[in-house]
């Protein structure tokens, strides 16, 4: 993503981080205002500078704009989720969570072709979906916003919605009080040793996000929640609040946001350097 877009997005994300302590309604209103302002600036940049190639236009409407617009969709979706949440925990709460997950799944099913296109990172139809000039009025979506043909393509809104709903799903799963370790046997090494994660759970969450975002499992075709489940079972640790813990990671001010990954890199490099420095006694 171009530097000018990165700067604008980083500024927006910082603004949104400052709103997390507000009540649901005030937070949503403030978030929508902030995102709309940033989208307006983004549109000005596009209309002023244009694109030097069709590939650049595709990249903008496939990747850049959805990263902004998804934040607006997420703000509205999260508000609806929080307002509908039952006041008391129990079976009613479990049913509520399941309904939320079903709602998300139905949307993905309704747009199954384009959702798979999004998940697979396909490119064959990019010119159709992410170059302006298509029939945007034909996009299916009851909550479709007012469309400006100079700043809209067939696919950018739905890609934004996919990103937002995947993040909403993470939020729902993080809130669900599911005993993910129940019924699972203790994982042991071949030597029979029982293995447990004894470090800070936040460090493990940081590591798992790295594995997920680098698409190291199933060629990237895996849900973040599935990875969390596997690591929970392997290391006998509760990661049910991983979404909130990752929010804490993003809000770090006095230390690196990737503190644990940075530490791992230093220690691996030290091991490599120490190994290179080793000289057997027979060679001295």
Automatic annotation (TrEMBL):
Q: Could you tell me which species this protein originates from? A: Pedobacter frigiditerrae
What name appears for this protein in its UniProt entry? Answer: RteC protein
Q: Which domain of life is it from?
A: Bacteria
Under the heading Pfam families, the entry gives: RteC
């Amino acid at each position: 993503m171009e530097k000018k877009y990165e700067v604008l997005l980083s500024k927006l994300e910082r603004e949104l981080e400052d709103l997390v302590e507000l009540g649901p309604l005030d937070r949503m209103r403030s978030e929508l205002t902030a995102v709309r302002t940033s989208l307006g600036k983004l549109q000005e940049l596009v209309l002023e500078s244009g694109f030097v190639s069709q590939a650049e236009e595709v990249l903008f409407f496939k990747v850049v704009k959805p990263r902004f617009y998804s934040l607006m969709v997420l703000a509205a979706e999260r508000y609806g989720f929080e307002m509908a949440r039952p006041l008391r925990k129990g079976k009613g709460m479990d049913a509520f969570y399941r309904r939320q997950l079903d709602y998300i799944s139905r949307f993905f099913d309704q747009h199954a072709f384009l959702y798979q296109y999004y998940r697979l990172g396909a490119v064959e139809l990019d010119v159709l979906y992410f170059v302006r000039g298509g029939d945007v009025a034909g996009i299916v979506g009851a909550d479709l916003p007012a469309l400006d043909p100079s700043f809209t393509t067939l696919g950018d809104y739905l890609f934004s919605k996919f990103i937002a709903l995947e993040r909403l799903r993470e939020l729902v799963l993080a809130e669900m009080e599911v005993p993910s370790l129940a019924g699972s046997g203790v994982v042991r090494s071949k030597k029979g040793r029982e293995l447990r994660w004894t470090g800070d759970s936040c460090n493990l969450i940081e590591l798992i996000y790295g594995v997920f975002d680098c698409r190291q499992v199933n060629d990237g075709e895996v849900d973040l929640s599935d990875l969390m489940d596997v690591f929970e079972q392997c290391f006998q640790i509760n990661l049910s609040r991983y979404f909130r813990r990752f929010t804490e990671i993003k809000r770090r001010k006095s230390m690196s946001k990737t503190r644990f990954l940075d530490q791992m890199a230093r220690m691996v490099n030290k091991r490599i350097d120490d190994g290179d420095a080793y000289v057997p006694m027979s060679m001295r």
